[in-house]
Structures are given as structure tokens and as C-alpha cells.
Design brief:
By secondary structure, the protein is of the alpha+beta class. The protein is built from 13 helices and 15 strands. The radius of gyration is 22 Å and the shape is globular. 39% of the residues are buried.
Length: 390
């Protein structure tokens, strides 16, 4: 395997014509190549969903993504004989390291046309990590666990849901051959909404609502109401996930940015708040699977993509549950099945036929058992990998 790593901000030496070279992204042209690469690599893929290029550029921009306020990110491009063959990001998330008292560098936005390209890109991140005093490299995260994360290791025959990644099956081998091993698996659960929920789930839900004065309401989409509900969601999210492996509470700016980006596609009937005696104690957020629309848009809103976006309600039949949270003191009170039951009922009424609950940690037994009891079937695994570098 011929691998050579070069950097534009260092003096470079001649390399063999078939060697892989890795260069730091330096300007607009490089950013454009970085964003455009997956669209070329997955052009013939049946299941990769092209995101809007505008959104991808914004994710990589400190001017648009508040993640950069607490993280240093370096982007890299790989070439062989002048041809672009891969990309990767090295990510030093200071907030993560402070929260978990770690010295870990993350990698993300990983694409590689072949194993030698993958090895060169990963070695570049490892060198960058050592220079910054990190003890390990972990990923993929794009750019954090609060965004898209994990490497797909099974379920390649299905389209990904909104905000879930997709990659070739070969990527797992590339990482493992480069010395990476599993850090944690993230599970995705399939729900067939045409199948009624089990009677036990329905009984628990009805009893909870009748005896314990628990009510469930939908999100308030008015400007003032939406802002208030966003505060409720933020509080529950931070509290409910505080003990989860790898969790870093998103900043106010990050939550606000994500909410504003997703608000145009929100179905209010799929954003639920559970209240006990007037206090919001749990929430569930499912999003219409806009990927079913994006698949027709080729990464562009204009000219033809706008037509599909405006017709999205007639196109979308799937929804992804991306947030299911209950305050710690209410976790064993039956709120999880209640929220799942309510999402199921409202999703069916809204014409959705299939859903995904993703992702959950592989060792979150309480949540995973609740999903299985509600008819969930594990159908995809996303893996986080790690490698010591010191």
C-alpha cells in the first residue's frame, strides 16, 4: 500500500504518481470539492440520499454552525494522481473533553474510494490528534453525537431516515484494518405503523392517563408557544440524557439553530409533551422523513427540487422518532410506552405507515425493552469506532 500524506502549509516532497496524498482544505474551491465529493461517489447508489448542498455547506461553516464555538475542525481531501478519492474531518470538541474529562479527537465526514485512501485519511487525523495531545481518535461523528453519527454496519438494503447516515459496507473493514475497534453501537428500530400496538402497551397508557393525571399535548407552533416549548424540550433533553455514554449537552445556540432548520418540516402532531399536574415531564419528537423528498431533489432546491418539497405531504409516508425523553424521576412511571403509544396513534391518523426510532445506545436496556414491547424491530446498527494514538 503506497500512502503519502502532505499538507499545503508544509513543505512537500515529490511522491510516486500512484500514491495517495492528503491536503488540508484551504479555500472556497476546496470546500466545494469537499461538499461535492459524496454526490459523485454515490451517484449510482440506490440508497444514499443527497442532502441539500446548501445545508452541507452551512454545517461546515463557523458562520452558520454554532458547534464551531466550542470545537476546532480541520478538513482534509485525499487525491491520487490528481483525482479526488476521499475526505475526512478531524474534530477537537473542547466541550466534549471538558464534560467527559477525556482527550479524544473525533473524525467525521469520512468518505474513501478505496482502502489506501481510507488509511491515508485516518493517519492524517491520528497525526493531528497526537499534535494536540489527544490519546485516542473516535468516530465517525458529523460533527458530533448531536448530529449524524456512527458508521452503518448492517441494514444496507434500506434508505436512511432523516438525519441518519449511509455508507458502503466496505468502510467497516477499512477502519478495522487501520486498527480501529468498536467503541459503542447505536441501534435503529423499525416500527410498522399498520400493525396495532399490543394490548399491554395500550392498557399501561390508558391507566397512566386516567389514574395519574398525565396528559399529552402537541407542540405549540405559534412564535411565543414554540419558543416556550423549545425551552421545555431543551430542559428534558439535557436532563434525560445526562447519564448517557458520550452525551454532551448541546448549547442554547445549537438547539436554537437545529429547531429553526427543522421547523419547516415539523408535523405538530408528532411533537408531543407529557405533563403531570401541569409540569412537562417527558417529550417525544418524530419528524416526517424528508429524505423521501430529498431523494428526488439531487441536492438542490432549485429549479425542480422546490416542486417536490412543496408536495412533501403527499410524498412522505415515514417518520423518524429522534427524541424520546423522560425526566429521571419519571422514568419508571410508564411514560415511555405512553409516548410511544401516542406517537403511534397520531402517526397512523396522519397517514404514516412506517417509522424508525433512532438511535438508542446498545446498552440502554430500559428504553430498548420499551421499544421492543411496542413492536419495535431492530433493523440497523451504527457503530462508533476508536483507536488509541499515544
Amino acid at each position: 500500500m503506497s500512502v503519502s500524506v502532505t499538507h499545503r502549509d508544509r513543505e512537500t516532497q515529490p511522491v510516486p504518481p500512484n500514491a495517495v496524498t492528503v491536503e488540508a482544505v484551504m479555500g472556497r474551491r476546496d470546500i466545494r470539492e469537499f461538499v461535492d465529493l459524496p454526490y459523485a461517489m454515490y451517484k449510482s447508489s440506490e440508497h444514499w440520499i443527497p442532502p441539500l448542498k446548501r445545508d452541507e455547506r452551512n454545517r461546515l461553516s463557523p458562520d452558520h454552525n454554532p458547534f464551531f464555538e466550542h470545537a476546532d475542525v480541520r478538513l482534509w481531501l485525499a487525491r491520487r494522481g490528481g483525482r479526488l478519492t476521499g475526505r475526512i474531518a478531524s474534530i477537537d470538541d473542547r466541550l466534549h473533553n471538558e464534560t467527559h474529562r477525556e482527550r479524544v479527537t473525533w473524525f467525521g465526514f469520512f468518505e474513501a474510494a478505496d482502502e489506501s485512501t481510507a488509511r491515508a485519511l485516518l493517519e492524517t487525523v491520528e497525526e493531528w490528534a497526537r499534535d494536540r495531545g489527544s490519546t485516542s481518535v473516535r468516530g465517525p461523528a458529523n460533527p458530533s453525537l448531536n448530529d449524524t453519527a456512527g458508521l452503518l454496519v448492517d441494514g444496507f438494503e434500506h434508505d436512511p431516515y432523516i438525519l441518519m447516515p449511509y455508507n458502503p459496507a466496505a468502510y467497516a473493514n477499512y477502519l478495522e484494518h487501520a486498527g480501529y475497534s468498536k467503541a459503542k453501537d447505536l441501534l435503529a428500530w423499525d416500527i410498522d405503523l399498520t400493525v396495532p400496538l399490543g394490548e399491554r402497551i395500550q392498557r399501561v397508557s390508558e391507566r397512566l392517563m386516567a389514574r395519574h393525571r398525565v396528559t399529552v399535548r402537541t407542540v405549540d407552533m405559534s412564535s411565543r408557544g414554540f419558543a416556550a416549548d423549545l425551552e421545555h424540550l431543551k430542559s428534558i433533553y439535557r436532563s434525560a440524557w445526562s447519564d448517557n455514554w458520550g452525551f454532551v449537552p448541546p448549547t442554547d445556540a445549537e438547539i436554537r439553530q437545529l429547531a429553526m432548520e427543522l421547523k419547516p418540516v415539523v408535523d405538530p402532531n408528532l411533537v408531543l409533551f407529557a405533563e403531570h399536574e401541569g409540569r412537562v415531564v417527558g417529550c417525544a419528537v418524530a419528524l416526517p422523513d424528508i429524505n423521501q423528498v430529498l431523494k428526488r431533489m439531487d441536492g438542490r432546491l432549485l429549479p425542480g427540487g422546490l416542486w417536490h418539497f412543496l408536495r412533501r405531504r403527499s410524498i412522505i409516508t415515514r417518520a423518524r422518532v429522534l427524541l424520546l425523553g423522560v425526566l429521571p424521576e419519571y422514568r419508571k412511571s410508564g411514560l415511555y410506552p405512553l409516548l410511544v403509544s401516542e406517537l403511534h396513534r397520531r402517526g397512523c391518523a396522519g397517514g404514516y405507515t412506517r417509522g424508525e426510532l433512532s438511535w438508542t445506545l446498545e446498552d440502554n436496556t430500559l428504553v430498548n425493552a420499551g421499544i421492543e414491547a411496542a413492536g419495535g424491530r431492530r433493523h440497523k446498527t451504527y457503530r462508533l469506532y476508536e483507536k488509541p494514538v499515544r
